Amino acid sequence: MNKKIIEKVLIFENSTIETALKKLNKNSMQILFVVNKKKKFLGAITDGDIRRSLIKKLQITNKLKEVINKNSIYANQKTSYEEAKIIMENNDIRYLPLLDKNKIIKSFYSLEKKDLEKKKNIFFIMAGGFGKRLLPFTKKTPKPMLKIGNKPILEHIINGAQKNGFENFVISVHYLSKKIIKYFQNGKKFKINIKYIIENKPCGTAGSLRFLKKKPLAPIIVCNGDVLSNLNYDDLLDFHNKKKSDFTIVVRNLVHKNPYGVVNLNKNRVTSLEEKKDLVMNINAGIYIINPKVLKLIKLKKMDMPDFINLLIKRRKKIFSFPLKDNWIDVGNKENLKHSKKFIN
Known about the structure:
Elements: H1 3-8, E1 10-12, H2 17-26, E2 31-35, E3 41-46, H3 47-55, E4 75-76, H4 81-90, E5 95-99, E6 105-110, E7 119-126, E8 147-148, E9 151-152, H5 153-162, E10 166-173, H6 177-184, E11 193-198, H7 204-207, E12 220-224, E13 227-229, H8 233-243, E14 247-256, E15 262-266, E16 269-274, E17 279-290, H9 305-314, E18 319-324, E19 328-330, H10 334-344
Parallel strand pairs: 1-2, 4-5, 7-10, 7-12, 10-11, 14-18
Antiparallel strand pairs: 2-3, 5-6, 8-9, 12-17, 13-19, 14-17, 15-16
């Protein structure tokens, strides 16, 4: 196997979680093989391992040695593909590293991708906003129809969902709704099904969910009409289902670099001094999974998503956060719109 291919999936144990995230985003395998300075194989790390570490409150500045799966399965370099395939299928893994006697990775096998399974879930996109922060661009064009490259933002969102097997879409529209409907129509030209909820008056970012005509049986994926991400929705659905969650919020880890020392006080007394402590926050990424049974709680004519989430918390529903390690951008302001073409590329 070409050494360059192997190098793409190798990472050193002293690298940070952040470095691993960046490297995972550059390859389609969603796995890295962790090695020491002598390139001896120590274990594997997947996007799932990183996600679980973030749930456990580890930071992206932590070292990989804290999250590495040391029980990773491997084989010797003389293993045939037929033998490797049995190992991978029996252990439910997609990649198997092949090591020499010094535990140096010489190659790896991979299972061929399965045919994409079509999902019955509704993919609900909220596209009714006025886009005031993007004026004058949105004076005659609804925000989701602003083009990035040669496609509207909304088409990029739909394409990303299609790659994950979604084919049933509902789009809530209000401002300049006719332009959205004229472009996408019933979705036939995109090989999907599209239905619309037309808001005569703005219903808020959760209110339009009340107007779903048929009560869905499967969890609903809800996405803001101005967020782009290469999120793996299979992982998100698996997480939601395993947690038996009523509502899952996709969250993004945001780090604010602080160039100053932080003085911790108790009244006026200094208790400690920390040099350049960064502020780490979990922000709402504008992507959710909702179980249909909680939709009946949306009774107001207008309700925003934060109000709905707080209502669910008050009712003691199961709400979980799903850490987003994938690329993500909110195209809701001029600065991000300017950089969105680079994101797509």
